[in-house]
Specification:
By secondary structure, this protein is of the alpha+beta class. It is 22% helix and 29% strand. Helix 6 packs across helix 7. The chain binds pyridoxal-5'-phosphate.
C-alpha cells in the first residue's frame, strides 16, 4: 500500500488490498472468499448486465480518537439489501453473512481506515447481482455478492456548506409503485440525465417531486429530504423514496433533542414555510440546502442567505458524527466496534 494523502481524499474509487466475495448457486450460498483482484470474470449473459438484476449498499466505518474502528448501522444495511432482493427476485444475502463479509472487508483493509484527525472515513460498498446466464426475462439462478471498501474524504472540505437544488418537472427518478424504495442500480441509471442537466445549470442535483401528481416532495437527488420549522422535523412519506438509514437516525436524534418528527406527504408549496432544509444520506450525513429553485414556475425557496447551514442542521450533523466516531455514547446500538 502506497502512502495515502488522507487530507486530500475525495469520493472516488481507490483500490484497497482485498475484497470479499460469495457465490450463490444450486440454491445455496457458498463460503466467503477473499480476493485481491479488482476484476471478476462473468458470463456475457448475466442478468445483471441485461436486465439490471442488481442492488447495492453504502455504509461507513470510522476510526475514533481511541483508535477503534466503528461501523455504523451495518444490520440496517443488511436488512435493506434483503428488501432489495424482494424487489428484484434475487437470492437474499443472510444478515449474518452480510455482517461477516463487511467485518472481514474492514479488518483485512484496516490500513485504509483513515486516521481520526483527517475527518475521512472508510466507505463500504456491498453489491449483489444476478451472475447466472439468462436470455429470457427471468431471474438468474446464480448470484454474486461482493463487499469492497475505499477510503473517502470528508464530504465538506471547506467546512459544512449549503448547496442549491432545482425542481424540474420533466424528470422523474422513480414511479409511485415502482422501484424507488429499493437500492438498485437502475434507479441511478434513470437519474443520470437529470443529474447532469442540474449540474450544467449550477445545481447540486434535481429535487424530485412525486411522479404521479407532481404535488409532493420525493427526494433530493439520491438523498432523502427533511425540512425544519418551529421545532418540527418534517420528512416526506412516499412509496417511491428509498428508506435512508441516515434519515431514520436523524429522526431519532431530532426527537431526543425535543423536536416533533412528522413523516407525511409534504406538498411542494410547504417549502416556503421551512426555516432550514437538508438532504441526508451516508455520504454527507446532512447536506444543508441553500435554496430550491422551481425551474418551471420561477419560484425560489430560500433556506440560507449566507451559505451557512441553520442551527438545527448543524446540531443534528454534529450529534450523528459524534456517535459515528465514538465521541458520544452509542445509546441506540447503532455502532459495531471492529475487534
Ligand atoms: C442510498 C440512498 C439514500 C441514502 O440512504 P442512507 O442509508 O442514508 O445512505 C437516499 N436515497 C437514495 C435514492 C439512495 O439510493
Amino acid at each position: 500500500m502506497e502512502n495515502i494523502d488522507w487530507s486530500n481524499l475525495g469520493f472516488g474509487y481507490m483500490k484497497a488490498d482485498y475484497n470479499i466475495r460469495c457465490k450463490f448457486s444450486n440454491g445455496a450460498w457458498g463460503e466467503l472468499e477473499v480476493h485481491d483482484n479488482e476484476y471478476l470474470s462473468m458470463h456475457i449473459s448475466a442478468t445483471a448486465l441485461h436486465y439490471g438484476q442488481e442492488s447495492f449498499e453504502g455504509l461507513k466505518a470510522f476510526r475514533g480518537k481511541d483508535g477503534k474502528i466503528r461501523i455504523f448501522r451495518m444490520k440496517d444495511n443488511a436488512l435493506r439489501m434483503q428488501d432489495s432482493s424482494v424487489g428484484t427476485l434475487m437470492a437474499k444475502v443472510p444478515v449474518e453473512m452480510f455482517e461477516e463479509a463487511v467485518l472481514k472487508a474492514v479488518k483485512l483493509n484496516e490500513h485504509y481506515v483513515p486516521p481520526y484527525e483527517s475527518g475521512a472515513s472508510l466507505y463500504i460498498r456491498p453489491v449483489l447481482f444476478g451472475s447466472g446466464p439468462q436470455i429470457g426475462v427471468r431471474p438468474a439462478t446464480e448470484y454474486m455478492f461482493i463487499v469492497f471498501v475505499l477510503p473517502v474524504g470528508p464530504y465538506f472540505k471547506g467546512g459544512f456548506q449549503t448547496t442549491p437544488f432545482v425542481i424540474m418537472r420533466e424528470y422523474d427518478r422513480s414511479a409511485p409503485l415502482g422501484m424507488g424504495k429499493y437500492k438498485v442500480g437502475g434507479n441511478y441509471a434513470a437519474s443520470l440525465v437529470a443529474g447532469q442537466r442540474s449540474h450544467e445549470l449550477g445545481y447540486s442535483n434535481i429535487f424530485y417531486l412525486d411522479a404521479r401528481e407532481k404535488k409532493y416532495i420525493d427526494e433530493c437527488g439520491a438523498a432523502n429530504f427533511f425540512g425544519i420549522k418551529s421545532n418540527t422535523y418534517v420528512t416526506p412519506k412516499s412509496s417511491s423514496i428509498l428508506p435512508s438509514i441516515t434519515n431514520k437516525s436523524l429522526m431519532v436524534l431530532a426527537e431526543e433533542m425535543g423536536l416533533t418528527v412528522e413523516r407525511r406527504d409534504v406538498p411542494v408549496e410547504e417549502l416556503s414555510t421551512f426555516d432550514e432544509a437538508g438532504a441526508c444520506g451516508t455520504a454527507a450525513v446532512i447536506s444543508p440546502i441553500e435554496r430550491i429553485d422551481d425551474y418551471d414556475k420561477n419560484i425560489s425557496y430560500i433556506f440560507s442567505k449566507d451559505g451557512k447551514p441553520g442551527p438545527i442542521c448543524e446540531k443534528l450533523y454534529h450529534k450523528l458524527q459524534a456517535i459515528q466516531y465514538g465521541n458520544e455514547p452509542d445509546t441506540h446500538g447503532w455502532v459495531t466496534i471492529v475487534e
